[in-house]
Amino acid sequence: MEQQIIKVKNKRGVKVIPGFKLSLGVTLSMLGILVLIPLASVLISASQLSFAEFISVVTSRQVMSGYVVSISCAFLAALVNAVFGLLITWVLVRYDFPGKRLMDGLIELPFALPTSVAGISLTYLYSDKGWIGALFAEAGIRIAYTRTGITIAMVFVGIPFVVRAVQPVLEKLDRQYEEAAEMLGAGRIYTFFHVVLPELFPALLAGFGLAFARGIGEYGSVVFIAGNIPNKTQIAPLLIMTKLEQYKYSDATAIALVLLVVSFLLMLFINSVQLYMQRFSRG
Amino acid sequence: MKKRISAMVLTGLVVSSTLFTGCGKTQEDTTNDSNVIELLNVSYDPTREFYAAYNELFHDYWKEKSGQEVKVTQSHGGSGSQARSVIEGNEADVVTLALAHDVTAIEEAGLIESGWIMEFDLDSSPYTSTIVFLVRKGNEKNIKDWDDLIKDGVEVITPNPKTSGGACWNFLAAWAYWQEQDGGDENATKEHMKKLYQNVLVLDSGARGATNTFVENKQGDVLIAWENEAYLSMKEYPDDYEIITPSISILAQPSVAIVDGNAKEHGTEEVSAAYLEYLYSDDAQRLAGENYYRPSNEAVLQEFSDQFDLNMNLVAIDDFGGWDMAYQTYFNDGAVFDQIYAD
Asked: The pTM is what?
């Protein structure tokens, strides 16, 4: 940290935004107001419960099942996103075709669209009377109001994270490596798994982690397509809302705190895997 | 080092103070012009159409009476979350919510003076409603009464009583029916309720959401709905639905109240009181009837005897010992509704 600061100072004329003190001050106060203080208030509000109360709230059957639904669906959605996100990125980076720019822009739509709008339209399409849902309904598969529907909504909100994480890395990846591998006699599959994928993996993992975390906390788009039946299709964020509706603020923050810890551990895990892999590839 | 820290603290203070002053400016300057007065009415989901019409009626009435232009802003949502938003600082002058319990919650937060329920006539409920069934045209599953909802293969749509005021009325209406059927045997009634909720396909968080699930997404065979919601759906799609009135239902009394704390601050006490008082006028009562609410004025109600089934057997919330009692028994964590879903 200290070293970096000195470096920046020495390179006069390179700095775009002037005033280290000013910019760090602004950064810290924004971080404080927008992130740290709200997070601290979650802790404070949850700490109004005694430890026993806290445990009984977060381990009650409905809440536990809410965690299971949210986390398992988010994990599945993030996996789907990792595979298809990589595919989409590959197509966007490596090929030229008409409408490529448009497609590139469309990827970000899930960020821009209000989540409730996404939820309502997904539900409309995937209910057993909807355009897509009707096709599956004939085969006896129900999508809306099941965990499958929840996963689909989470795939929708999570896909930009993977694409936008992998895209810049793939753009910078020199094709020479692939050519070299081919000349050395590696097949396509071997080249992909042993040359390309290791280079992309840290970025892919970061995208996966972001999509996963977003899915765990997602409320707006999921709540419409989930049937919200307790112990079956009730997501954890809905339980937080339910507690709020009953004016039980500390119960709500207790559930939120567990989600927060899960997301934090997840990010920590992913970061340490990345760090490990970086060392590994350098060493 | 010291200098750097003080610079950071200083910029921090400057940034945060500009942020806060920037945010705080919106509420002022609105009531300065004495000829324009603004009111915020925080209401629940299905009253959208009624208050859109009523606000115009009241605007003309108030203009004539006091010469002031009154501009009413509406806010709609699930009754419980609307009440919560007022507690958390939504500057409502009046609330018109689905049940007294939500108004009581605002009272407990200190924003509404106790005794509000006596402030206006008939327990501060200018209009009432009840709970009916909406089924698809032809009524394929032959649904006539609550008993038919627990048959195998019948899919029911109703919102979650933990988040929706309307759903509480639904629950209690069903409970009243089986209580009578089972001769007061609470365990048998609980079993029936369990069967009912096992047939529930989607448990939306609000009444309007449940209506959308049933009407727009075409889910389920029967929607347990506010009478006025059911009529609105009928009006919009006259060829698609039928209304079935069960043998027993509940007299739903939506409650209105002035949010004294906010109204005092805004200087809108007088117009807020007039706004709610005028709901009892014949014109407003008729408007309520036209929007499928049952007017609380008997004479006006009789004008709508073609529209409403006035012979329904309606229980009232007092039969359940009032809302506090009902919440403790049925809707609190671990109470009957949770027990229904316990296994």
From this structure: 0.80
